[in-house]
Amino acid sequence: MMMAAAVNQSEAQLSTNFYANSCPNALSTIRNSIRTAISRERRMAASLLRLHFHDCFVHGCDASILLDQSPTITSEKTAPPNDKSARGYELIDAAKARLETICPGVVSCADVLAVAAKEASAYVGGPSWAVKLGRRDSTSAFPDETLTDLPFFKADLQTLIDNFGAKGLSPRDMVALSGAHTLGQAQCFTFRDRIYSNGTDNIIDRGFASTRRRRCPAVGGDDALAAMDLVTPNSFDNNYFRNLVQRKGLLETDQVLFSGGSTDSIVMEYSRSPSRFSADFAAAMIRMGDIQPLTGSAGQIRRICGAVNN
């Protein structure tokens, strides 16, 4: 309850028109930059959504994930949940650089991340939403918290519910946000156990498992990539949930959402109603963006997203 109260208290300090006077072209500048980047590599849409998620779940939405290694910073970028998998840093840097030319020192990197995630969703057919703004940037990184606060790809359902609940997010929020896995790719080592296991608590469609084994050997090839959604891997839709109903979830944390537990009914609802999923995803993204932002005089507006201001 204390966490939820802290989250709710900070919500009131964010506003959808925060930059209306200080940088009126901020949102269009970010939008143009992000859309251009995704048009070159559509997979970046998934990467930007994930980057915002990995930022917010670690010490709040404060752009700490963007800080590079330095004599005074131990970066989150090389922490195990992010190392060789988190992507899109250079796109945030590019959007921020454009902002610095039109209104230097005004728009935070944390807000750029939040807007980029929304633009990524909208560009590939997903929902859009009014992003609440006014976050400030952290002057520290929190690599140890990546290990405790980010969901582990082998977590069971109750652990996931608890993990999201600690951030003020409901089980419905958790299922909706998991639907971002309708986009993007995963590394072989994250789903190897699932596709090679025949355990009764790890049910998987046999044909799906066989297909996945072609690109993910039982030994080696840890970094080999597979699309999270075989059907429409570059479009934001509800096929992710249809896949779960057919036992074709790629990660264990995907399939556990539809495995005889308390979230089965939500998965079924989303599998039947793309509009309900889209609406709930947008609402959950707004709530996620409310996790412990730095506001007022806390933190700073970093000029370069990878480094604390001198």
TrEMBL record:
It comes from Linum tenue. Disulfide bonds join 23-103, 56-61, 109-305, 188-216. Its EC number is 1.11.1.7. Substrate binds at residue 151. Ca(2+) 2 binds at residues 182, 229, 232, 237. This is Peroxidase. Belongs to the peroxidase family. Ascorbate peroxidase subfamily. Ca(2+) 1 binds at residues 55, 58, 60, 62, 64, 76. It is found in: Secreted. Residues 13-309 form the Plant heme peroxidase family profile domain. The record marks 50 as: Transition state stabilizer. The active site is at residue 54. One of its GO terms (cellular component) is extracellular region. It holds the Pfam family peroxidase. Removal of H(2)O(2), oxidation of toxic reductants, biosynthesis and degradation of lignin, suberization, auxin catabolism, response to environmental stresses such as wounding, pathogen attack and oxidative stress. These functions might be dependent on each isozyme/isoform in each plant tissue. PROSITE patterns: PEROXIDASE_1, PEROXIDASE_2, PEROXIDASE_4. GO terms for biological process: hydrogen peroxide catabolic process; response to oxidative stress. Its cofactor is heme b; Ca(2+). It catalyses: 2 a phenolic donor + H2O2 = 2 a phenolic radical donor + 2 H2O. InterPro entries: Haem_peroxidase, Haem_peroxidase_sf, Peroxidase_pln, Peroxidases_AS, Peroxidases_heam-ligand_BS, Secretory_peroxidase. Keywords: Calcium, Disulfide bond, Glycoprotein, Heme, Hydrogen peroxide, Iron, Metal-binding, Oxidoreductase, Peroxidase, Secreted. The keyword Kinase does not apply. Binds 1 heme b (iron(II)-protoporphyrin IX) group per subunit. Binds 2 calcium ions per subunit. Heme b binds at residue 181. The keyword Endoplasmic reticulum does not apply. One of its GO terms (molecular function) is metal ion binding.
